[in-house]
Design brief:
The protein is an alpha/beta fold. Helices cover 25% and strands 23% of the residues. Strands 1-8-7-2-3-5-4-6 form an eight-stranded mixed sheet. Strand 7, helix 7 and strand 8 form a beta-alpha-beta unit. Helix 6 packs across helix 7 (202-210). It starts with 16 loop residues before the first strand and ends in a 6-residue tail after the last strand.
Length: 224
């Protein structure tokens, strides 16, 4: 079945940390083959909004050093994710609070992805902030049409505020157990999960725990 997933198996390996541009990775996947996608875009968002004076020296240096995506690039990623997702498949999109409040609807203008839910990740650690101090990140849940819950979301014990501390191995480290629960709820064994901007590869680790196939990579972090 893997033969029908990828256009060029020499370019991308399944269950591997591919060092590749994420858009190129997505373009190598055939239409409507993926059950779930995770996308954690690297954009300046909160860094530009807060304008911390010591960025790149101490505060947020690792994150600010990462290659940034502009808005057109993010839209291209999302349109490609829409193409490769199966009907009624899910996209889990990580955003900061400023994009959450200002909205991401223009990113989805030319897709069939519909907003269906949101989960707050309580990191259990106080972060930066001129006013309130950051302690959370947000994962917005989109579903490709047709939108339905029955047989597409099989677990009903996932709270919409999830507490999980992590060991930070990457500037964009994410909670493995939360991602594991989301994968378990929306896929079956041996189905395919894609993460085109994998960063610390926490989605890959979650896939291993749930016996799902992972297709993902990162332009900076990966293996040739």
């Amino acid at each position: 079945m893997k033969d029908s997933i990828l256009k060029n198996k020499k370019l991308i390996k399944v269950n591997h940390k591919n060092k590749i541009d994420g858009v190129e990775l997505l373009k190598n996947i055939n239409d409507e083959k993926i059950s779930v996608a995770f996308f954690d875009p690297q954009y300046r968002g909160i860094l530009d909004k807060m304008k911390y004076g010591n960025e790149g020296v101490n505060r947020g240096k690792a994150r600010s050093d990462l290659m940034q995506m502009d808005e057109d690039t993010i839209i291209t990623f999302i349109e490609q994710i829409d193409r490769v997702l199966k009907k009624s498949g899910h996209l889990f999109l990580w955003v900061d609070k400023f994009h959450l409040c200002s909205g991401t609807s223009k990113w989805f203008k030319n897709t069939s992805l519909q907003l269906v839910d949101m989960i707050v990740w309580d990191k259990g650690k106080i972060g930066m902030g001129y006013r309130s101090r950051r302690k959370s990140e947000y994962i917005i849940v989109f579903q490709k049409e047709p939108v339905r819950a029955k047989d597409c979301w099989t677990k009903h014990n996932i709270p919409d505020v999830w507490e999980e501390k992590i060991e930070k191995k990457h500037p964009h480290s994410k909670p493995i157990q939360l991602q594991r629960e989301l994968i378990s709820a929306t896929t079956k064994e041996n189905e395919y999960v894609v993460d085109p901007a994998a960063g610390g590869y926490s989605v890959f680790e979650a896939c291993k725990l749930e016996n799902r196939n992972f297709i993902g990579g990162d332009i900076e972090y990966g293996e040739d």
